[in-house]
Design a protein that fits this description.
With about 350 residues, the chain is α/β, with parallel strands linked by helices. It folds into two domains: about 1-80, no CATH class; about 95-350, Alpha-Beta Barrel (TIM Barrel). The chain has helices at about 15-20, 60-65, 70-80, 115-130, 150-165, 175-185, 200-210, 235-250, 270-280, 300-305, 315-325, 335-350; strands at about 1-15, 25-30, 35-45, 50-55, 95-100, 130-135, 170-175, 190-195, 210-215, 260, 290-295, 330-335. The strands form two sheets. Strands 5-6-7-8-9-10-11-12 form an eight-stranded parallel β-barrel, surrounded by six helices. Strands 1, 2, 3 and 4 form a four-stranded antiparallel sheet that branches.
Length: about 350
């Protein structure tokens, strides 16, 4: 069976985007650049997992040829409007601040395991520009051991409740249905799950909760995911997994308007896989969902650079964020909120809708 995928290339912004659309040379693309975005398309076909052809095509060229149902479906998803997520407009990129209330997370483990310290940091991230604060009670770094769901609830519920009472929008970062329920009961507006709601009860909990969900791709599980990750073609494999999970959510009663997706950088992927996924990030818009990207401080940044430790990866984190937003990503999950907000402000200024 042959599958076809579209990766937006030749991305246009502002006046150029409007001209490309008006003259039928480009397709519309979701994103937050002032004046809108448009693109020409890189078309990739693969059979039995292997890439068999790649080509670049403009809208005029495609419209003049023979219609392809796979391509039409991909283009429809990419061009579909995106509504609000967690009650917030996606007209500009949203920043999701990372708040790990764990003793062993890869970057800030132990710093915010105390309730007071966690709440103070959550407030600070919101004040610095985080639209959402992502509260997690289980480390999912490579090699991490699982945490009992009851312990996870004890770590997170009080933090979620306190920050919610302050008016901070919260997502609960968990793969356990019982923790999802507790987080939503405490006020969380989003369920953020690295396993894309794989817990047998998670789909039902998420559907009944009425909150938005983030579905992430992970190959394997945290203890072993980095042992030897293998893909036929990483962008296509991750895309197919996420499409299947979006379909499962919709079948369970979770509408597309409540779903966002995350390619899962660093979760069962080599540095080369992560770089390839970032290069093909625009391809995931075809699923019709807002796109979340979490590259912040991850080890692949050091592997692609000079081996820097987690606290010396801010430049690479910001570069990854700007690459993602340039391809239309709507939500960035980051540790360094103020720095990311500043980088986005400069990028937005450069994307003004002038000539």
């Amino acid at each position: 069976m042959q599958r076809t995928y579209i990766t937006p290339r030749g991305i246009l912004r502002g006046v150029a985007a409007r001209a490309g659309l008006a003259h039928g040379q480009a397709w519309p693309m979701p994103g937050s650049a002032p004046g809108g975005q448009a693109f020409t398309a890189a078309i990739v076909s693969r059979r039995a997992g292997a890439v068999v052809s790649q080509s670049l095509i403009t809208r005029i060229e495609y419209d003049a040829g023979k219609p392809d149902p796979d391509i039409d479906r991909e283009l429809l998803g990419i061009g579909a409007p995106r509504g609000p997520f967690a009650g917030h407009s996606l007209s500009r990129p949203l920043i999701m601040g990372v708040l790990n209330v764990t003793p062993d997370s890869f970057s800030d483990g132990g710093k915010f395991s105390d309730l007071g310290a966690a709440v103070t940091h959550g407030r600070a991230m919101a004040a610095a520009g985080a639209t959402l604060v992502d509260v997690g009670g289980e480390s999912t770094r490579p090699g991490a051991a699982p945490v009992d769901a009851g312990e996870e609830v004890m770590r997170t519920a009080g933090v979620v409740k306190a920050l919610t009472s302050d008016g901070v929008a919260i997502s609960i970062d968990t793969r356990h249905a019982s923790v999802m329920s507790a987080g939503v009961s405490a006020g969380a507006r989003v369920i953020n799950d690295i396993t894309a709601l794989a817990d047998p009860l998670a789909l039902e909990v998420a559907a009944k909760s009425g909150v938005d969900v983030i579905l992430m791709h992970m190959q394997g599980e945290p203890r072993t995911m980095q042992d030897d990750p293998v893909y036929a073609w990483a962008p296509g494999d991750v895309h197919d997994f996420l499409r299947a999970r979006v379909d499962a959510c919709r079948a369970a009663g979770i509408p597309l308007s409540r779903i966002a997706i995350d390619i899962g950088l660093g979760f069962g992927k080599t540095a080369a896989h992560n770089a390839e996924l970032l290069d093909h990030l625009g391809m995931f818009h075809s699923l019709g969902c807002p796109l979340v990207v979490g590259a912040s401080r991850k080890s692949f940044i050091g592997r692609l650079s000079a081996g820097e430790g987690s606290h010396d990866r801010l430049p690479g984190s910001l570069a990854s964020a700007l690459v993602a937003v340039a391809q239309g990503a709507q939500i960035l999950r980051v540790h360094d909120v103020a720095e990311t907000r500043q980088a986005l402000a400069l990028q937005a200024a450069a994307y003004t809708p002038g000539a």
